[in-house]
Protein: Phosphonate C-P lyase system protein PhnK
Amino acid sequence: MENLPLLKVQGLSKFYGGRIGCTNVSFDLWPGEVLAIVGESGSGKTTLLNSLSTRLTADAGMIQYRMRDGAMRDIARMSEAERRLLMRTDWGFVHQNPADGLRMSVSAGANVGERLMAVGDRHYGSIRAAATDWLSRVEIAQDRIDDQPRAFSGGMRQRLQIARNLVTSPRLVFMDEPTGGLDVSVQARLLDLLRGLVQDLGLSVIIVTHDLAVARLISHRMMVMKDGHVIEQGLTDRVLDDPREPYTQLLVSSILQA
Ligand SMILES: Nc1ncnc2c1ncn2[C@@H]1O[C@H](COP(=O)(O)OP(=O)(O)OP(=O)(O)O)[C@@H](O)[C@H]1O
Structure:
């Protein structure tokens, strides 16, 4: 199945009244592939990510996903319950602000364990063991398992949010500026950790970032957005080293000069 796409997107569009959010986006995502969506503020990155992950309902187009049994399913034709199950198990969503993806008033262990309970795991010992294991994989000391995330630093909260997402072994993870809003040194460490996990787990990832250095480090392929349109896509190194569109050239050179 490795030679079949995990996600197939055709002609996806989302409008806000008369304003374009994103329009006519098409691409295939392959198992183990990391796709970065880049572009300046207001270009439609978040709208596209939210439409792909069904947090927003698209106005046109089709999203097909290859289920674990190999069947290609049209996301729009799934029942609400099927879609919810998918989002709790096979998909993950890492928000820029960890508070949007965590429950701030329950313990770190419960934040991770909760996703397992949501898929039917009822055995306290095994849930606690999985939570402990995941905390250490994201470099959170085990003696913090009973602390609430409100007692954590920004970087720790983000690592906890990642653990909560990955504990159910998802195959596709959406990320919205996961290193945004953190100090530069914390960002670098988190990016390193993310890159390692994505590689080890063979995850497929769609990551929104306005930071081309982040895209360079973590992604295989890149889509450049402008005014809701994908204006250029290709292998990350190709797009950054040899941008074809004048707008991409401008984006790349402005970063290099900064
Ligand atoms: N809820 C909304 N209602 C109306 N217009 C919206 C809404 N959300 C986004 N838009 C518009 O859609 C376009 C794309 O916005 P979007 O937030 O997707 O861009 P972005 O690239 O993610 O920007 P940023 O990097 O600043 O988050 C913009 O013109 C924006 O004003």
Summary: The first helix runs from residue 45 to 52. Residues 101 and 144 are 19 Å apart (CA to CA). The chain is about 40% helix and 25% strand. The two ends are 43 Å apart (CA to CA).
